[in-house]
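I'd like us to work through together how a protein chain folds, taking it slowly. To get us started, please write out a protein record for me. Label the sequence line and the structure token line clearly, so we can match residues to local backbone shapes. Once you have written the record down, we can walk along the chain together.
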Amino acid sequence: MKALSWMVVAVATVAAGGAAADGDVDAGKSKASACMACHDKAGIGTMPNFPNLGGQKALYLAGQLTAFREGARSNENMSIVAKSLSDQDIEDLAAYYESLRPGCPEQ
């Protein structure tokens, strides 16, 4: 079952790949306010178990968000948040977080 879940994640990542390049950084920044409680304004996880998003590749982020939305990945918070995201929201958020410098809080 886990192998199937990771296969779905891989397919979602590849499928989102072309789309993630089409994301709008400014639109993603305005949509990221809901993300900031856990990933602050610089995309740095606010708790040890929250990942840093700043500087992460858009292709990867879009794939992970898609996997949460589609149920291929499960996390109590992310599964709920991702369900409300459209394809465009995912593309925009992925582009925004990729545009941030990794681990740089003064952005």
The chain has one domain: 2-99. The mean pLDDT is 86.
